[in-house]
Design brief:
Blueprint: E1 5-11, H1 23-34, E2 38-44, E3 57-60, H2 65-88, E4 92-96, H3 98-102, E5 106-108, E6 114-116, E7 123-140, E8 148-162, E9 170-174, E10 184-185, E11 187-189, E12 192-195, H4 206-221, H5 232-254
Parallel strand pairs: 1-2, 1-3, 3-4, 4-12, 5-7
Antiparallel strand pairs: 5-6, 7-8, 7-9, 9-10, 11-12
Helix pairs in contact: 1-4
Glutamine binds next to helix 2, helix 3 and strand 8.
């Protein structure tokens, strides 16, 4: 058993959790356990003041417009400064969909209300007149070595566009991605990732989980090479999700409902 430890923050677990997003916390902590890394999880919600630099990994799930409106003031006024400082200090962060949108400059809802974001990710989002729903596959070059595919499920009306200070998480192979137009999905800046991958994302994308674990360790322990795990089941789930995406997307393209 190594003496490596990761302190995890689950942000707004009571309000921001769509399509099983809390499964990312389960997958992250279980994979840490398999790597012999101890984790400690703290849930943080409305009106709680924390120093986010005390954490190594911060996770925030997606939410519908009304949940985003419910947390927006607190996210800005109570959490924002400390969260932005933590990301600059190298804390790892994963934000899904509604969380991703509020990590950017702003999210303009379907009713035209502009919710201010934390400006942590150089992106902006405006709701469009169609929902982008379905299984998605993308290819990411975020991983050292070679490009890897990522799979998930997306459901958003927000169209996100990237500014010059972020890189996309991946290039869409099947699905809509950030906006259904420019072929990008997600955004990455330092050790922070925003993505539309619900699902939950991490169980079927073990290499993304390992990347986040390595990033979570780096600040306190330097670069850590994680042990190889038997990912046969994760690989099979990943391939099945890819096949399902290709089948359903083919039907959507052909106009079959
Ligand atoms: N409410 C946002 C949208 O519709 C985010 C939805 C979500 O988190 N799945 O784009």
């Amino acid at each position: 058993m190594s003496d490596l430890k990761i302190s995890v923050c689950h942000l707004y677990p009571d309000l921001m959790n769509l399509y099983g997003d809390r499964g990312n916390i389960i997958a992250f902590t279980r994979r840490c356990q398999w790597h012999g890394i101890e984790t400690k999880i703290q849930s943080v919600t409305l009106n709680q003041v924390v120093d986010f630099a005390e954490f190594d990994f911060i996770f925030m799930g997606g939410g519908q417009d009304r949940e985003q409106q419910a947390i927006c003031y607190d996210f800005q006024q109570v959490k924002g400064t400390s969260l932005a400082e933590a990301v600059e200090a190298g804390v790892a962060l994963l934000g899904i969909c509604g969380a991703y949108q509020l990590l950017g400059r702003y999210y303009k809802t379907g009713e035209g209300e502009e919710l201010p974001g934390l400006q942590i990710l150089d992106v902006w989002t405006e709701a469009g007149d169609r929902r982008m729903i379905g299984n998605i596959v993308e290819e990411s070059d975020l991983f050292p070595g070679r490009a890897k595919t990522l799979v998930g499920f997306e459901n958003h009306s927000g169209r996100t566009f990237l500014g010059p200070k972020v890189r996309p998480l991946g290039r869409v192979l099947v699905g809509y991605g950030n906006n259904g137009e420019d072929g990008t999905e997600g955004a990455a800046y330092r050790h922070a990732i925003g993505t539309y991958l619900h699902g939950s994302a991490l169980p079927k994308n073990p290499w993304l989980t390992d990347l986040l674990i390595a990033w979570s360790l780096e600040r306190r322990y330097g670069a850590v090479t994680l042990s190889e795990l038997d990912d046969e089941i994760e690989e099979r789930a990943h391939q099945a999700a890819q096949r399902r995406a290709q089948e359903t997307w083919g039907k959507i393209k052909a106009g079959v409902k």
